[in-house]
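step=encode ok
step=design start
structure_in=
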């Protein structure tokens, strides 16, 4: 079971590093699916991989630019050599790569660059974060699909990270079987069996027909219980805009975030670190460090299971108590 205990976390880091060393000593170009609870500290593990010289040249790929920016700032504060590959210009190259360190980029910036072979030959290991998003978003971001298949063929060691990746379901698909066959040497390290580190003290799952009642109660709470810190996830951008107008009308202290706006949201959060209400789409389910929340609410009944789990675990990041309300999802029995 995942734990907030720092001693236990340090032990898990040490065991994981030993396992990775053992796997990569058996065969180069191994592919390791490393699954750990959201908020466990997978980015901290990557820093330990570099600091303990397991690998000295790391290529880090994330489908979310906001994650890259936040991770880059963290690396800079720890004086770890790092760079972000900024452009999709196909004529751009990696001629000024680091001698050692961590290179951060997105899937599209990798597959659409002529420097792909150059950066692949430079790297000792490729670390890919939030791998479940590669499968969820590949229909409207084709670069994710191209990068995903390139990883299976790559001659480099690859570590694939996720907190909610459905390994067994993926392995039963034709795509999963082809990917594993291409990879030759493929391993899974599942640290917590998809159990969540951050779980609510109490949760309520309500039928969609009660949505209006929930919203009415919620608005009453926001107006008369200013001390409660609440996070609401919406399935559509229009819903967020509608609530923004309502918050301005009733003077409810709030911040909001839509897809593509995570970096801007983080800047606003620095200026206003503890808003009463945070409104967002699924963009806030990954890679954004949110302030303490007492209540998390998910509206809509057709979320992907992996995304829903990520949203549910956005509270309690520092061990604080929180409560959770969600509409019942279509995939729930």
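sequence_out=
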């Amino acid at each position: 079971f995942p734990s907030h205990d720092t001693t236990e976390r340090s032990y898990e880091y040490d065991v994981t590093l030993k396992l990775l060393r053992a796997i990569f000593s058996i065969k180069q170009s191994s592919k390791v699916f490393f699954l750990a609870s959201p908020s466990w500290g997978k980015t901290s593990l990557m820093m330990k991989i570099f600091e303990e010289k397991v690998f000295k040249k790391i290529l880090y790929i994330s489908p979310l630019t906001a994650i890259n920016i936040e991770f880059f700032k963290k690396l800079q504060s720890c004086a770890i050599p790092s760079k972000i590959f900024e452009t999709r210009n196909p004529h751009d190259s990696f001629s000024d790569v680091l001698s050692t360190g961590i290179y951060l980029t997105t899937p599209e910036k990798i597959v659409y660059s002529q420097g792909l072979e150059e950066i692949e030959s430079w790297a000792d290991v490729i670390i890919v974060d939030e791998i479940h998003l590669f499968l969820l978003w590949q229909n409207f971001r084709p670069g994710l699909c191209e990068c995903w298949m390139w990883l299976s063929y790559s001659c480099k060691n690859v570590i694939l990270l996720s907190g909610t990746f459905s390994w067994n379901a993926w392995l039963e698909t034709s795509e999963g079987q082809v990917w594993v066959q291409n990879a030759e040497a493929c391993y899974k390290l599942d640290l917590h069996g998809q159990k969540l580190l951050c779980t609510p003290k109490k949760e309520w799952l309500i039928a969609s027909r009660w949505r209006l009642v929930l919203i009415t109660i919620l608005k009453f709470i926001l107006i008369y219980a200013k001390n409660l810190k609440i996070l609401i996830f919406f399935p559509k951008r229009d819903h967020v805009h509608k609530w923004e107008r309502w918050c301005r009308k009733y003077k409810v202290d709030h911040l909001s975030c839509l897809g593509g706006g995570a970096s801007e949201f983080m800047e606003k959060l620095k200026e206003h670190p503890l808003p009463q209400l945070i409104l967002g789409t699924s963009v806030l389910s990954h890679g954004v460090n949110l302030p303490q929340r007492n209540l998390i609410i998910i509206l809509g009944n057709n979320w992907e299971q992996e995304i829903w789990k990520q949203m549910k675990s956005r509270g309690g990041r520092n061990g604080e108590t929180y409560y959770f309300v969600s509409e019942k999802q279509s995939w729930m029995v």
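step=design ok
step=annotate ok -> The chain has a mean pLDDT of 87.
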